Amino acid sequence: MMDWSDRHCRFFHRQMTKRALLYTEMVTAQAIRHGDRKRLIGFDPAEQPVALQIGGSDPNLLAEAARWGEDFGYAEINLNVGCPSDRVQEGRFGACLMAEPDLVAEGIAAMRNAVAVPVTVKCRIGIDDQDEDEDLDRFIRKVAETGCSTFIIHARKAWLEGLSPKENREIPPLNYERVYRIKETHPELTVVINGGIDSLAEAQAHLAHVDGVMLGRAAYHTPWILSDVDRLIFGDAPAFLTRADVVARMKPYIAAELGKAPGLARITRHMLGLFHGEPGGRAWRRIISENAHRPGAGADLLDVALAAVAEQVNRLQAAE
C-alpha cells in the first residue's frame, strides 16, 4: 500500500469506521532516521487507532524508528516482512527477510525493548521455494520467542524472482487454510489474515478461524465497505451514515489542508471509489479526476461532484 495509505487516505477512511485499526504505508527505518519525520510519519490524532509500518533489517535502526513512532503517538509498530518489491529487496527488508528468521527476531526483540506499545509482524506464508509448512512454522516460532504475539499473514507466497510486485498480489495461489493452521498450532498468538479478501462477508467467514482480518485494496478501491465494519465486525449500533455525510466530514479537513500546501488532488485521489458501483459513481470519479489538479480547486468541487451523483440518481428514479 505504499503511496496509497498516506495520512489523507487514513483520515478519509476514519470517517467511515471508528474501530478498525488503520496502518500507514511502509516507511523505512533509514528514512525515519534521516528524513523529514513530520512529513513521513506525522498524522492527525483523529486517525487513531493507527499503526506505523516500518521496513528495515538493522536492529538498532529498527529500535530507533520504533521509538520515534511511539513518540509520535502510534498505537502499534509493525515490521513489514511481506513486501516483495525490487526496491525493498535491494534494501534488505520486506519479504526477503523471511529467509532470515534469526535476523527478524533480533530486530523485533530490539523494537520491543525500545517501546511499550505493541510490536507486530506482517509476513507472507513463504517466499520462493520455501516449504509453506516447515519454513513458515519455523519463522513464526522464532519470532514469537521474542514475545511478539501478533502476526498479520498474507496468505500467498511471494516469488522474489520472476514475478513483479503486482503479479505477487495475484498469481501465487491463496492458501487461507495454511494461515488457519498457524492459529490452530499457536492458539496463544493473535493471527490476522490478509490477501484477496473483498467483502465483509468474507471477513466474517475468516473470523471463524483467526483473530482478525486485514483489508488492503478492497478498502482502498471500495472504501464504503468500511462503513459497516463497526456494526458487522465489532457489534456496534448502526451509524446511519451516508456517503454525503462522509463528504461533509471531509470538507473542513480539506480546507485546512489546502491552507498549508496546494494540491486538492493529493487528498481527493483517495476518495474516487466512494461511489463505486453506485448510480453517479462514474460522474463522481470523472469530475474529481478532471478538476482536482487544477489551480485554485477547493473543497467546493466535492459539492459539484455530489450534485452530479444526485442528478443521476434522480434520473433513474424518474425512469422507474
Can you offer a commentary on this structure?
With 320 residues, the chain is an alpha/beta fold. The protein folds into two domains: 7-232, Alpha-Beta Barrel (TIM Barrel); 243-319, Four Helix Bundle (Hemerythrin (Met), subunit A) (Up-down Bundle), CATH 1.20.120.1460. The chain has 16 helices and eight strands. It has helices at residues 7-14, 29-34, 37-41, 59-72, 86-90, 101-114, 134-144, 165-168, 176-185, 200-206, 217-221, 229-232, 243-258, 265-268, 281-291, 300-319; strands at 22-23, 27-28, 50-55, 76-81, 119-127, 150-158, 190-194, 212-214. Helix 4 runs parallel beside helix 6 (101-114) and helix 6 (101-114) runs parallel beside helix 7. The longest helix has 20 residues, at 300-319. The chain starts with 6 loop residues before the first helix and ends with a helix. The model has no long low-confidence stretch (mean pLDDT 92).
Gist of the model:
This protein is an alpha/beta fold and 320 residues long. It has helices at 7-14, 29-34, 37-41, 59-72, 86-90, 101-114, 134-144, 165-168, 176-185, 200-206, 217-221, 229-232, 243-258, 265-268, 281-291, 300-319, and strands at residues 22-23, 27-28, 50-55, 76-81, 119-127, 150-158, 190-194, 212-214. Strands 1, 2, 3, 4, 5, 6, 7 and 8 form an 8-stranded parallel sheet that branches.
Features:
about 325 residues; alpha/beta; TIM Barrel; Four Helix Bundle (Hemerythrin (Met), subunit A); 2 domains; eight-stranded parallel β-sheet
